[in-house]
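User: These chains co-purify. Model them together.
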Amino acid sequence: MACPYCDFVKRPISGDAPDEFTEALCREIAEFEGPGEARSIFFGGGTPSLLSERGFARIFEALHHRFEIAEGGSSSRSTAGAQSSIGRAGARPSQIEITSHPEITIEVNPDDVTPERARFWRGLGVNRLSLGVQSFDDVVLKFLGRCHDTEAARRACGVIGDQFENWGVDLIFGAKPPSAWAASVAECVRFAPPHVSTYGLTYEERTPFWKQRHEAVGDDDALAQYRHAMDALGAAGYEHYEVSNFARTGFESAHNLIYWRNEEYAGFGPGAVSYLGGVRARNLSRIDTYLTRPGEKEESLALSARETKVETLIQHFRTRAGIEHAAYRARFGSEIEEDFGDAIRTLAARGLIADDGGRLSPTRRGYELNNEIGLALV
Amino acid sequence: MTTPIENIRNFSIIAHIDHGKSTLADRLLEVTKTIDKRLMKEQTLDSMDIERERGITIKSVAVRMNYKSKDGKDYVLNLIDTPGHVDFAYEVSRSLAACEGALLLVDATQGVEAQTLANAYKAIEQHLEIIPVINKIDLASADVESARRQFTDIVGLDGSRAVLASGKSGLGVEDILEAIVERIPPPKGDRKAPLRALIFDAVYNDYRGVIVYLRVVEGRIAAGFKVKMMSNDEKYEVIEVGSLTPQMRAAEDLEAGEVGYMICNIRSLDKTKIGDTVTDLLKPATEALPGYSEPKPVVFCGMYPAADTDYMQLRDALDRLRLNDCSFSFQADSSDALGLGYRLGFLGLLHMEIVQERLEREFGLTLVTTVPNVSYRVTLTSGEVMEIENASKMPPSNEIDVTEEPYIEADIMVPTQYLSAVIDLCKKKRGIHIRVDYIDANRCMAIYQMPLAEIVLDFYDKLKTYTRGYGSLEYRILGYRPGDLVKLDIMLNGDRVDALSCIVHRDRAAIVGRGLAAKLQKLIPRQQFEIAIQAAIGGKIIVRETVKSMGKNVTAKCYGGDISRKRKLLEKQKAGKKRMKQVGSVEVPQEAFMALLKVDDDGA
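Assistant: Joint model of the two components:
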C-alpha cells in the first residue's frame, strides 16, 4: 500500500518488484555516460526494501560493474550519490567527518525488516539504514495511512540497532493527533539511532491527502512540534545539522550533504533526478515508459550561472554550517556580497542568517522560516 | 451622396441592459445587407474586447443602412447605437439629440425596467417618435400581452402598436424596418442654410487623429471646407467626410439630415467638445445648436502601479486612454503607502472597472486600486470651501464647520415580493423614503433619496442579491447635502495607511471600522513579525486586530534532490508577491485596499 501523502513515482505491486523493473534499472546504470567513481549510494524514494534479495543482488552487481565504488580509507571523508544513485564529489566538506566509507544507504519500512534480511543487506555492502518509522503512535500511523504499527517499528529498531552502527529513524510531525509527538520523539531517543530526521507533513497536489489539506494541523502547532524536536533531540546530544536532520557527530548523512552543498549526483529509476555538468535532469516518471526507455529524460535544464548560485546558497542555508565566504569564492570566482548583497543584508536584518566573518549560516529562526531565505535569494 | 431628406430616418435603439439591443442591431445590419452575413459576428457594433466579453455597449456608434421599403422607395436609415448602463446615461442623451425617433426595446420575458423608463423619458423630452418593440417573443417565458400593457400603463405609449420581434431568430425585423420608415418623421433642415452640424461623439484613431461623429442639421459639409467650432472658435480644414457602414466610407459631402463622420486634423479628443456645433467659417451660422451638459465624474479612486518603476508607464497609458475616453479625469497624486500614482474620476463604478481593466489589458500594467469614493464638500470654520476627492486629504475635524456629500434620487424597480427587502437595503444605506409607485399587480418602483457614497460602494450588487437579480436601478444626482461624516483611519503597526482611509457616517463608523479591521486581518498574510491592525475615528482607536507572526515556512524535503524544482516554486511564489505593496514593514496584498467593499452592512 502506498503512503497517501507521498508524491513520489509509484505503482501498486503484489509480491516482489517485477524483474522487468530491475532489468530496466540495471540497463540504465550500465548505459550511464558519466563519471566512473561513486562515493555514496542511496536506495530511496519509495520503498526499496520491497525489492527481493535477488533484485538487490542484481542491482549491486550492475553498480559494481559500472562504477568503482570508493573503498573507505581514513583520508576519504565524504562521498556522493543520490536516490538509487551515484555521483562524484565536488568541494570537500570542511567540518563533518563521516563514519561509513563509502556510505551505502537503503530506506526501509519497518515491515520489511527481519534479522535475515538485515544480514543480507550487510552482506551486499550496505552500511547505513534509514528506517521509515514516522511515529511510535498507532493512531498517528493510521492517520498517515501506514501499513506498519508501533510494534513493527519497535521490532525493526531493535533488529537494525543490533546489526548496524550507522542508522537513522524518520519521523513525521504535523500529523494528527499532534499530542502524540513528544512521546514519539522520546521513544525514538530511547532506541538511540545515531541519525534522526523529522519531516513536517506536507499536503502535495496529486496525492490522496491533498483533498484533506484544510484539516491540516495548524502552523502554530506544527511549529511547536518542530521546536520540541529541536529541544528534545538537542538535549539528547544530537546536532541539528540540517533543517530536518539531526545526528550524532560523524553520523551525518554523507549522501544528503551532497544535495545540501549542491554538488553533482546521478539518479537512476523512474522520475529520478540527476545533476551533472551543470544540468539538472529528470528521468521519465511514468513507469511503463521508463521500462522501455530507461535513462531517457523528460526534462533537462542547463542552469545559468545565476541559477546555480541561487540554488547553491538555498541549499547551503539548509545546513547549520551554512556557507564559507572562501568556499563560495573558490567555487564561483565572485563574492557573495557582490552577487547577493542586498538579499543577504535584508535576511541578516530580519534575523534569519548570521555572518561570523568567515561564514554565513542560518539562525534557529532561519531554520523555521527557511523558505523565506530562498524567497529573498531568487 | 445626396439622399433626398425625406428618405432619411435617424434613430436610436434604447433598452435596459440585456434586453437584446446589440443582437437586434446585428439583425438590422444583416437584413439591410449592410454587413455581409458571412462577415457577421455577434455584437457587430461593439468593437472593444471588453464590450464583447461583458456583453455590454460602452461607446456609441453610428451606422448607415440602405433599405428598400415596401413602398418601393430607397431609404437611408442611420442607427445610432447607445450604451445601456446607467453610468453611460449621458451618452444616451447625446445620441438621442441626433435622432428623430427611437426603438424602445423591452424583453418580453422581463418587461419594463428602470432604465427602459429613464431612457423612454429622455426620448420623450427630446420629442422623439418612439416605436415600442417587444423582443425575445420566441422564448417560452415570453409574455407579450403583459409587455404591451406595461408600455401603455407605465411608459404611456400605445402598447397595441408595439412591434413583435426576436433579435435572435430575425423574426419581425422587416416589420421594425417598415415601422421606422412609416412612423419616424424624416429630418427637417434647410440644405441651403449656413452649415450647422451637431457633434454627438468622437473617437481617436492612431493614424487619422480625432474622428468626429456628427449629424448635419442644416446646410452641407464637404472635404476642403473651412469650418469652426462654435464653442471656442477653433478653426479647421475638413479633410474627409463620409458615412459609417460601420467602416468609414468617404463621401463627397454630408447634407442636412445626414449622419456621418468628419476628419480635420484634430490632434486630441480634448480639443473636441461633444455637443458642439460645427459651422462654415465663410458663411457661419449665427446661433449654435443646443448642446449637452458635460458628464462630470462622480466616483473617484486612486490607481497606483504595483511596481513603483511603472509610474511613467501609467502616465503614458492614461494619456493614451484619454484620447479614447475623455469622460474620466485624472491627476497626479501620491500616497505614503502606495507611492506615486493618480487620482481618477469616473462616471460610475462600471466605468471605473472598465478603465482599470483597459489600463491593465491594453497597456500591460499591474495596478493597485483604492476603494472608490465620492467628492465631499467641506466648509472650514475659516469659511473656506474645499472639494475633497480623497479621504486622506480630509482636514482635521476641529477645523471643519460643515461636511456635505452628494445625494441622488434612485428609482428602483422590483417585483412586489422583493419590495420589503429593497426597503431594508435602502434603510441600511441611509436612504430617505420618498414613495412607492405600484406599476401593476406584480411590480413597483421604490423612489429613494440617498447618499451617492452608499450607491458607489456595492449598492448595485446588493440590490441584485436582495432581489434575486430582478431589481433594476436608475438614478439622478440631486446635489450636496450636509451629513455627519467622519474619517476612518487604519493603522498598520502604528502607522496610518493613507490609502486605507475612508469617510463614513458617524453612526456607522464603529461598525465599519471593526468590519474593515477584521477583513484586513484575514487578507493580510502572516509575515515574519506580528502585525497590529487598528481602526481609528478622529484619532481615537476603536479596535485592534492582530496578524500573528508566521509560524514556520520550510520545505521539509528537497523533492528527491530536485533543487531546481524548489527554486522554481520559490520564484513563482515571489512573482505572486508582486501584487503586494510594501507599506512600511508590512506587505499588503492588493485586495486589502478594496477590503471596504467586502464589509457587510452589519460589519461582518
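Chain B touches chain A through 25 residues (CB under 8 Å).
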